[in-house]
Amino acid sequence: MFWIDKPRLLQRGNKWHLTAHLVSDCGVEALHKFARRIGLSSQCFHNKPHSPHYDLFDETILKAIQAGAKITTSKMLIRLMKP
């Protein structure tokens, strides 16, 4: 399964963007495959030891949801990222 936390607003310069994080409870390889399927750049990936995830912005959030990612709370997302 693929999960994103509830999107929130982030200001970058003079612009506001929606942002979220994409994780998987199926492993990193499945996460990469899903990310490629929705057109995410590898630059969006953060290979943190206990929290590998992709950063999502604006339209990529919608693409992830349309491809089957489920929205959850940030607290639950953190639980899902733990090994």
What does this molecule look like?
It contains three helices and six strands. It is an alpha+beta fold and 83 residues long. Strands 1, 2, 3, 4, 5 and 6 form a six-stranded mixed sheet that branches. The longest helix has 10 residues, at 28-37. The relative contact order is 0.28. The model has no long low-confidence stretch (mean pLDDT 91).
Question: What would a concise description of this structure say?
Answer:
With 83 residues, the chain is of the alpha+beta class. It is built from three helices and six strands.
Number of strands: 6
Mean pLDDT: 91
Helix content: 25-40%
Largest sheet: 6 strands, mixed
Radius of gyration: 12 Å
Global geometry: globular
Distance between the termini: 15 Å
Task: Extract low-pLDDT stretches.
Answer: none
Q: What is the tally of helical segments?
A: 3
The SSE order reads EEEHEEHEH
Structural class: alpha+beta
Task: Bin the strand percentage.
Answer: 25-35%
Topology, element by element:
Layout: E1 2-5, E2 8-12, E3 15-24, H1 28-37, E4 45-46, E5 53-57, H2 59-66, E6 70-72, H3 74-81
Parallel strand pairs: 1-6
Antiparallel strand pairs: 1-3, 2-3, 3-5, 4-5
